[in-house]
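Q: what sequence does this backbone want?
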């Protein structure tokens, strides 16, 4: 079998579709992983990296004495499978294979992923032939060529990738641990530091400081308005910016009619067609259309996988000679851009444009297939269109502009106006994404006099440098050699998710700034791009086999040890500095109760809340959802009413959850429960808010004296309010217990919404466990729970609820367990059968059982069943069995109703017995008649 290993499932499928060429193609699913087979060939997709490197065991504990952050520098690393199912399947298939072709993406990352697959295959099949297919687009032509010209895996390239992985792990893990521990931060609150990430953050922080340090300079600009052929024309003074006001004013005052045309210069300007897209220029162009860098890359990858564009991670801006441009044009002629394609075909430039960078791995990004808007959806189609039009533009002729420069004189002062007119649109015809602004001036003649309509002197200020947009930052990173074409946008996304930077354009958060400044001060090597550039240069050497991976890693270790020398010497200073300065970022404003400071507090174990700086004197606090729902951070927005900063919960990979003003949130989320207090009304609600009482619990904790005073109530009403609050609180507790019970006992399932089930139960009047214990299966089924599960839940609810009741009554937990396992779960069951049989069922002594039964029956206000001796029971059973039609099951049922002999049965009310035992009333009446008859006969016999 020929096994083809692709980087992802979708590419495995595309490759199979293309290579099968009409042969029967079948898809198999094995342990949830698809394989595609045709003839003797099978393709399987990885999920990118299926193994990852990590430190060998023993380094998990951050606070361990032995494995300090520094110890991670020299820690041994191991490869562990991250996608076990795929690894298992790959190895299973490899055992049967006689040829394996690695067809992962064609770049350093892809080569490394390929090498990982190579090692997994070799481990189970040491002899199999393993080759490598390289292609830049998943199209029939490229694939057929690649698979008929396979080569060896490039181990040098893969080694460069491995070295980068090791170095990133070593730097990232050791520095992140060091800084987080120094600043006493843990859990989701750690401060991450990374080899590429930190210098990138450094650039954003530097830019922010430049902006802050910027002192605007005032300058003056002089212009005039004139008119020609009914058109308004503005001309500027040729001096440009005046840095002093007096000369500007002098020039303005001297500007006098007549305004005379002194020179007219015509010119022509060549407007070169743009060069082909590499990753960076593509991201910049996509950003103009409103796509973030990460989004632009995600969409491009999608388009690549589906064969619509070529591989989007490339540094190349020169089409290789092998690229079949004619073929591509023919293919995309079938797209909705037929007219544009045909225009380019008819008006092709001699040679396509070329950029500055030429490399051999991939061609520049270009279209490879025809797509439609219906097929892709709006957003993806816009990106497809961008790539396609850029390709067309690189084949289109340059544009030509006619330029016009007119000089004027007014009282000895010289002014000028310029115009530009597109005479040949060229590439602009097919590429509307760049602004080509025309300024058309009417014709002028030298010596001509024009009216002087207005002279304007404008005072302006120089502007600070602009903050980085994502695409500008990516360009800058590329210039500095920070990161790679595949990682740059991910690094930026990481900075955002780590809350180091925010907004668009990007600006640093307080933490981002504090961490950077602290590192700059004590270990500036990490914040400067130089070190990373050195490592990038080393990667290149590994690729070219002039240095080994081990050698490079060793040097990197030495560099990192130097950094740690600096860091460890300053550990306390760094920690205090970061802690002190970042505390501020959690402050929200003034405490409404005591005028202290409210701040977000993060505790261990994912607990977070808003508390007051004057705790424990002030206990005001606002609860927040657990941190796994999102880490609470402050935003810039401030509540108009409460002057508190808004709070937002952020979670990686999820939309942020805006809590808004924490106090508004607190008030509204407690309004419903406060409204449950019977004596609550609008006036009282206003009064308690004015007194900064926000929750039922606060009312319940108050004293009548305090409420009388604060709310201006009579002592009786205050007392009533407190006791009402206490019972509402208890009700709330029971409700939350019931909600928790449902969450704990219903298996989470795709498409299952607890909220929906809980709402359905609420509509049916079930909000507490007691209600649930008395519900029936049919009811639970209408709430969307399956029959079997409903029965289980019901049973559990009964056990839990009755357990609580019985505990409350005073049955010890140990005994309770014995009752439950004997099937006696409800309090009623204690009073409906003789204690003797309970004792027998549970194995507890009759005296103990008797005591429990008395407790329960007294609580239920039911008569305590009589105690019977064993002899009595035996004798009674015999009597009953003598009655015709009365069998053992019935005796059992009767005994549960406290009837153990014929006398009891005779004395009992047939209807009651029927209700308790389920035996029909007329049957019982028949038994009673039989007993009576027997007794009568006995009397006669005597
Ligand atoms: Zn307070
Ligand atoms: Zn508010």
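A:
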């Amino acid at each position: 079998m020929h096994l083809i290993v692709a980087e992802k499932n979708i590419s495995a499928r595309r490759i199979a579709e293309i290579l099968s060429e009409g042969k029967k193609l079948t898809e198999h699913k094995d342990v949830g992983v698809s394989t595609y087979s045709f003839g003797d060939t099978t393709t399987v997709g990885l999920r990118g990296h299926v193994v990852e490197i990590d430190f060998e065991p023993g380094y998990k504990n951050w606070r361990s004495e032995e494995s300090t952050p520094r110890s991670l520098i020299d820690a041994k690393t191991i490869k562990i499978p991250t996608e076990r199912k795929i690894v298992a399947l790959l190895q299973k298939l490899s055992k049967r294979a006689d040829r394996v072709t690695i067809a992962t993406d064609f770049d350093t990352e892809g080569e490394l992923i390929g090498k990982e697959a190579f090692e997994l295959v070799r481990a189970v099949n040491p002899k199999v032939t393993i080759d490598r297919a390289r292609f830049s687009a998943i199209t029939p032509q490229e694939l057929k060529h690649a698979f008929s010209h396979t080569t060896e895996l490039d181990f040098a390239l893969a080694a460069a990738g491995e070295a980068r992985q090791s170095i990133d792990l070593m730097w990232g893990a050791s520095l992140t641990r060091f800084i987080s521990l120094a600043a006493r931060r843990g859990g989701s609150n750690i401060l991450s530091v990374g080899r590429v990430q930190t210098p990138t953050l450094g650039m954003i922080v530097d830019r922010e400081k430049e902006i802050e340090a910027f002192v605007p300079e005032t300058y003056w600009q002089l212009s005039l308005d004139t008119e020609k052929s009914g058109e308004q024309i503005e001309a500027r003074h040729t001096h440009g910016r005046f840095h002093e006001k007096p000369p500007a004013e002098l020039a303005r005052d001297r500007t006098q009619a007549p305004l005379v045309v002194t020179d007219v210069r015509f010119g022509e300007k060549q407007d070169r067609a743009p060069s082909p897209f590499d990753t960076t220029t593509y991201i910049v162009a996509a950003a103009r259309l409103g796509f973030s860098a990460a989004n632009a890359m995600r969409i491009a990858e999608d388009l690549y996988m589906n064969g619509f564009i070529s591989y989007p991670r490339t540094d190349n801006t020169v089409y290789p000679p092998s690229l079949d441009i004619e073929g591509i044009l023919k293919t995309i002629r079938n797209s909705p851009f037929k007219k544009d394609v045909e225009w380019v075909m008819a008006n092709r430039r001699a040679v396509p444009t070329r950029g500055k960078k030429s490399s051999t791995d991939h061609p520049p990004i270009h279209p490879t297939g025809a797509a439609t808007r219906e097929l892709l959806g709006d957003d993806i189609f816009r990106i497809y269109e961008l790539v396609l039009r850029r390709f067309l533009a690189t084949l289109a002729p340059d544009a030509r502009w006619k330029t016009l420069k007119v000089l004027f004189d007014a009282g000895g002062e010289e002014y000028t106006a310029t115009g530009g007119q597109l005479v040949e649109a060229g590439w602009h015809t097919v590429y509307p994404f760049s602004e080509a602004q025309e300024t058309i001036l009417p014709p002028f003649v030298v010596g001509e006099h024009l009216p002087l309509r207005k002279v304007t002197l404008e005072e302006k200020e120089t502007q600070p440098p602009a903050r980085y947009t994502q695409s500008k930052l990516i360009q800058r990173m590329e210039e500095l050699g920070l990161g790679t074409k595949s990682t740059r946008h991910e690094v930026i996304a990481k900075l955002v998710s780590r809350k180091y930077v925010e907004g668009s354009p990007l600006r640093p958060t307080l933490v981002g700034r504090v961490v950077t400044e602290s590192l700059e001060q004590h270990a500036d090597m990490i914040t400067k791009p130089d070190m990373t550039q050195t490592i990038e240069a080393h990667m290149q050497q590994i690729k070219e086999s002039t240095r080994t991976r081990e050698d490079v890693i060793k040097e990197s270790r030495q560099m990192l040890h130097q950094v740690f020398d600096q860091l460890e010497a300053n550990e306390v200073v760094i920690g205090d500095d970061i802690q002190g300065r970042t505390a501020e970022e959690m402050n929200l404003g003034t405490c409404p109760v005591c005028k202290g400071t409210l701040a977000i507090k993060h505790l261990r174990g994912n607990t977070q809340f808003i508390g007051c700086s004057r705790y424990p004197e002030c206990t005001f606090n606002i609860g927040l959802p657990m941190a796994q729902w999102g880490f609470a951070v402050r935003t810039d927005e401030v509540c108009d009413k409460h002057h508190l900063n808004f709070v937002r919960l952020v979670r990686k990979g999820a939309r942020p959850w805006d809590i808004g003003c924490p106090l508004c949130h607190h008030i509204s989320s407690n309004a419903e429960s406060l409204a449950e207090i019977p004596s609550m009304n609008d006036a009282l609600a206003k009064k308690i808010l004015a007194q900064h009482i926000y929750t039922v619990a606060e009312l319940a904790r108050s004293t009548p004296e305090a409420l009388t005073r604060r709310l201006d109530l009579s002592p009786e009403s205050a007392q009533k309010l407190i006791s009402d609050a206490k019972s509402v609180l208890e009700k709330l507790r029971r409700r939350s217990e019931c909600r928790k019970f449902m969450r704990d006992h219903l298996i989470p399932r795709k498409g299952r919404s607890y909220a929906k089930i809980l709402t359905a139960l609420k509509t049916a009047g079930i909000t507490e466990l007691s209600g649930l214990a008395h519900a029936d299966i049919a009811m639970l089924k209408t709430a969307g729970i399956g029959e079997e599960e409903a029965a289980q839940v019901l049973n559990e609810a009964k056990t839990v609820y009755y357990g609580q009741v019985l505990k409350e009554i005073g049955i010890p937990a140990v005994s309770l367990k014995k009752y439950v396992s004997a099937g006696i779960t409800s309090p009623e069951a204690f009073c409906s059968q003789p204690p003797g049989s309970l004792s027998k069922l549970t194995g507890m002594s009759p005296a103990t059982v008797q005591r429990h039964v008395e407790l329960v029956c007294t609580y239920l206000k039911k008569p305590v069943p009589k105690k019977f001796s064993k002899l009595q029971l035996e004798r009674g059973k015999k009597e009953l069995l003598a009655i015709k039609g009365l069998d053992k099951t019935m005796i059992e049922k009767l005994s549960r109703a406290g009837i153990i002999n014929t006398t009891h049965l005779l004395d009992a009310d047939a209807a009651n017995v029927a209700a308790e035992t389920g035996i029909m009333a007329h049957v019982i009446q028949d038994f009673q008649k039989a007993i009576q008859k027997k007794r009568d006969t006995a009397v006669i016999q005597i």
